[in-house]
Design goal:
mainly alpha
Amino acid sequence: MGSDQWCVVSSNAVGLWWIRAWTAARTSHNMVIHRIVHAGMRVMTIPVVVLVAAAVIAGYTDLRTRRIPNWLTGAVALFGLSHHFVKSGGHGLWISLGGVALGAGLILLPMLIPYAKGGIGGGDVKFIAAVGSIVGAAGVFVVFIVAAGVGAIQCLIALWRQAATGDRPVTVPYGVALSVGTLVVTVGSLLSR
């Protein structure tokens, strides 16, 4: 039995759909479609939906108002902590708390001076901590790295715009970079399964 035949599952409707989707993906040699179909059946869980919704809302509100609402960060953090606790007990809670601590620390420690001067808001810190409550320490580190790259691009664009127009300094909504980082980690985890 070849490795492509592992998906012989029960003959229920989901199993038949799975086999049809797998066959279609394999015969078309489109691995991206295969991975999305594969991930869609096994990984589209409530935490994924919460992360995508939170990233979209945080990015949009930070772009429009330069604020990330407390109700959003609080709800996401509460969901992440309770989800991990219910799923894995005390061990899951520690994983979630590690993500919260690392997420907040990664943003707050290197940016303590800009934070104190109002260059970065508390919503950014709370948002990455809330994301960390769901993705854990390893995931929040990847979110931070991706967000740093996106934030650097945002800053370059803002500096270019300022130099071109001669206007006063332009603010950069870092919540957008954090949202992109969150979406990259979420989609990346879906495609890698």
